[in-house]
Amino acid sequence: MPICDVCLNLYWDLYPDTSSRSKDQTLGNEKNHTIGSSDSLVLSANLGCERCSILHQGIDAFRQYTASLLPPWEPWDLSGPCTVDIILRPGRSLHLGLTKSGHDWEEEQGKDSVTQPRLRYDIPLGREKYEIDIEYFTLADHPAPPWAAFRLGKQVPEILDKKMAIQAIQDWLSSCTDQHTCVSKQLPKLPTRVLDLAPLAAGKPIGGSKIIETQKKTLAMMKRGIPWSTLPRTFQDAIEISQELSIQYMWIDSLCIIQDDTADWERESSVMATIYANTYLNIAATCSKTSDDGCLKLRWMEAMVLDQVWSCPVKNVRIEGSHEGRPFEIFARLEQWRAHEDFLKNDNVSDIHIRSPLLARAWVFQELYLSARTIHFHSSEMIWECKECVRCECTELKNEMNRENALSRRRQLEIPFLSDPNQRLFFWLSIVNEYCQLNLTHESERLPALAGFASRFQDQIAEKYFGGMWRNDLVRMLLWCLTHPKAECIRSRPPSAPSWSWASIVEYENPDTRGDNSPQYILVQGSCTSFKQDVNAKILKVVCTASGINPFGQVSTGTIFIRGIVIHSILVRRRLLTHIGVNAVSTTINLNWDNSVSIDSLVSTYSVEYAHKFPEICVAADLIFEQEEDDAVVITRQSLLPDIRLGEKEGILDGDGVICLLLGTSEIPWSRGVKLPRIMASCLVLRHSINREGAFERIGIMMCDSDSIIFQHGASRVVELV
């Protein structure tokens, strides 16, 4: 058989190997063949290539579909030639990537900037700029094509109804019960309060008009019965699904905890780890922004993502043909990778608030880690997650559980690999990295919302817990930093955690952007052995008092007495002035997929008016060290990576004396051509406490070469850190 120059007959052996790509770009091994223009597919199809004809029909079908979208969906114009990537992956069906990058250069005279060429990003999506992915697959009960690249898949219904949802959940439940040990065979003890679904008669799913919750004055009435019409749509859907699955009891926090009773809330939140761990099934309305959005609805997806996002309803396309007299059917759909990415990635959750708002909530984090089985109602498909597998309606996610991603990490508390306490403590760093990106309505709940997970974690390591950190790894755990240390955060007032805890940071801008600048352990997370504690750094005593009865909850006071090398310094705020306006240096610390670290600096230009209105935005800071060497004074300047805003509001001023406390060194493989590795010293930067005489508060960290001259004149002392 002659080889088609365009599709290479979809033969695996003829495609170039792209398995060496970064992990952010590749899910497992893949082979990618790029076609310069989609017009080549059309020409090849017209010349008789059956495979090119199938691929072209799929592209053409979705061009027609996207162009015909009606409100509230916005139509897309995807006509014209584009770059086509044919992607083959072992065990998966064929994917097409369609890309058209619109760009142009223009000169623009800004109000406060010089005339300069810049790349235009305002070219509208569609026709001139787009990026979409199409998946081709076959169905088990339909005639299959003779080409192995089109593998078996399943259709995702365009509208999810209760009958289809129940059937899928029953299949997954049955498989898990028969093949796994996720749920104990013994019936667990029920929580303090539950909903009894047996006497509850479902009515018309109209949804409640406002949020319903149990309060002191309504508790007796709620015990007598809850009118169906008062329940939000999501609660109604979950109850009907549970009844169909013969589940009698349900626990919903807003109904089963007395919301205006602090003692009851603390008591119940302290046992959440047990509640989640003992659930038979956790139902997650992952795509719902509010409790009245429901679970059963029209499916939609984000199908095109560049600097903008366009969405559309889920759509399946049928392609019919015949080969050597034998008919076949192939189906195509826009690939579900955006839905899958919400579950696979844990390094950045700042872009999931539309598709998966539930996953961006901090209170849900421990539910997902502690529940044995969860069924997610995502915007585009249902996703099943248990301790031993993950499944989705389109079947693509079945390949991901054994790879390193957020899904596989959720079961690591159960596997022998983490039986070593040192491994588990290192695992905690990644937990904090993920959790700190998530949103809370009240930042004072940052520690309580992780309390269930922390108590479960303590069962594994048998260590003392202090404000989000563990005693036997406390020195390293003090070395968190902000992802973008640009002095735009504040600490809560009154404090919800000590300054040395990552839980003390509160952002003052839009809470949906928290993931863009959250506390991270990026500088000490290269590997579990990369950080070396300084021989002089020693924790002497820790005093940490919980605000309530839950020892893993909010902290009222916390003090660490630590001995270590201290270097005195002067804090100097700097303004970078140009002839145009005021510039701000924004530093971004990146932990790359290969564990190398890079630091990016971005200089932003602001108008003079903006700089006067928001002076803290335009200020960075350095630390000045003075050492006497023979007859000279050596002045060394190092950059401060701040935790909080600098200025009068926070009481951090030019010329303030601060101390740097050396905690240890890290072997960091800096990227961008720097010789590897590089030994960097890590120091806490502390100022005198404004609340306790003689004590110090954390304001940031400093990193510099471990052989820097500033350490030659340091002295060991005990520091009281609050």
From TrEMBL:
Superkingdom of the source species: Eukaryota
Domain called Heterokaryon incompatibility: residue spans: 218-367
Name of the featured protein: Heterokaryon incompatibility domain-containing protein
Pfam families: HET (PF06985)
PANTHER family: DOMAIN PROTEIN, PUTATIVE-RELATED (PTHR33112), HETEROKARYON INCOMPATIBILITY DOMAIN-CONTAINING PROTEIN (PTHR33112:SF9)
